[in-house]
Write a structure and sequence with these properties.
The protein is mainly α. The protein is about 90% helix and about 0% strand. It starts with a helix and ends with a helix.
Length: about 70
């Protein structure tokens, strides 16, 4: 039995759009949870290894770039 037989052609299109939207929303939620889990693991690993947090590394890299650009100008 097909959606077309149950809902008619317009209803089948509507049901398909709702289903597709639900699938898309689940993919987004899964990606968000995987990203959050990966960030948590990175924080835990950096804490165990004694490395500074990611935000500090980013600011440190930016300050190095500034110093290097000043050296190249002189």
């Amino acid at each position: 039995m097909k959606l077309r037989d149950i809902f008619g052609i317009e209803g089948a299109f509507r049901e398909f759009r709702i289903w597709r939207k639900d699938v898309h929303q689940r993919k987004i939620e899964n990606a968000r949870s995987q990203r959050a889990e990966a960030e948590l693991q990175m924080r835990l690993l950096s804490g165990i290894a004694g490395l500074p947090p990611k935000s500090f590394i980013k600011t440190y890299d930016k300050s190095l770039k500034k110093v290097n650009s000043r050296k190249s100008k002189n």
